[in-house]
Amino acid sequence: MFSVHIMTMKILDKVFQRGREFLGVDYPILCGAMTWISDPTLVSTVSNAGGFGCLAGGNAPVDILEKQIAETRALTKRPFAVNIITIAPAYQEHLTLLERVKVPYVIFAGSFPREKEVKRMKATGAKVLCFASTDSIAYRMLNYGADGLILEGMEAGGHVGHVSLMVLLQQLLFQIKEVPVFVAGGIGTGRMCAHLFLMGAAGVQFGTVFAVSEESCAHPAFKEKFVKANARDAVSTPQFDSRLPVVAVRALRNRGLEDFGKLQLTLLKQMDEGKIGRQRAQEEVEKYWMGALRRAVVEGDIAGGSLMAGQSVGLVNSVKSVRQIIADLVRDTEAELARIKKLF
Ligand SMILES: Cc1cc2nc3c(=O)[nH]c(=O)nc-3n(C[C@H](O)[C@H](O)[C@H](O)COP(=O)(O)O)c2cc1C
Question: What domains appear along the chain, each with residue ranges and CATH number?
Answer without folding.
Answer: 3-218+316-343 (3.20.20.70), 220-311 (no CATH)
